[in-house]
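On clarity, I found the account of how folds are encoded harder to follow than it need be. For illustration, here is how one protein appears when written out as sequence plus structure tokens:

:::
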Amino acid sequence: MGWVESLQQAIDYMEKNLLEDISIEDIAKQANTSPFHFQRIFSILTETSVGEYLRRRRLTLAAQELSATNHKIIDLAFKYGYDTPEAFSKAFRRQHGMTPSEARRNNGKLHSYNRLVIQVSLKGVESMKYKIVEKEAFQVIGIRKEFSLQNEENSTEIPKLWGQLNSDGTTDKLVSLNNGVIKGVLGICVDNKIPQKIEYWVATDYVGNTPEGYESLVIPASKWGVFEVHGAMPNAIQSAWNQIFSEWFPSNNYECAGTPELEVYSEDDPNRSDYYSEIWIPLK
């Protein structure tokens, strides 16, 4: 089964089981990938989390049922996964801008989120510059943090971490310690096998004993897809990730290996329109 087909199969599984208490492990299994990797791909392509997609779809169906039937609101609350009518009403108002009672009276416009169908472009409008490299295992040193994948905490907290480490001089110190082959400061995503968690490092390629105040991580030997990124942060790197998964992977025979992925940032001003960075993805 191809990459696109397996991802769509997982989405179809979510749709068939919207009223069930399904886990991210159940969903990722349909795509033959890890929960961590599935959530990463899903959020990159859709700009929302798996949990948020499920919530939006359930509340969309709940609104349709409110408008078309006389079913009690309390029964609909339980049907769509809420323990109390109050919790259902709060979530409903957050999505639709009105209470379930108001929706039943047709007092306003509802917000509908339709069933997701993955579409990819096999002919990229913009060319992608990349190379395939083989690299032996190497060590990085840096700062490690764990973030939740729920409620998109990782999307908000990782930029805050970078802001903190830039302002307190940590990233400058990492640049000065950089003595490995890969030059610059690294952002590293690691699957630590903990459900709903991501391990993230701000680090640098380093040969030698780990300096005081830092942790070390060994990146395993891999075949890497190294993609060039040109443009100001963070938009350029986010756009590149989307292009890699929506255009490059569907038109190539490679799959992600599941080991740590790297973002490589140079020492230049990241706000420059010609700022250079790289994305390193381990391949199999």
User: Anything to note?
Assistant: Strands lie at 130-135, 138-148, 185-190, 197-205, 215-219, 222-230, 261-265, 276-283. Residues 233 and 262 are 15 Å apart (CA to CA). DSSP finds ten helices and eight strands in the chain.
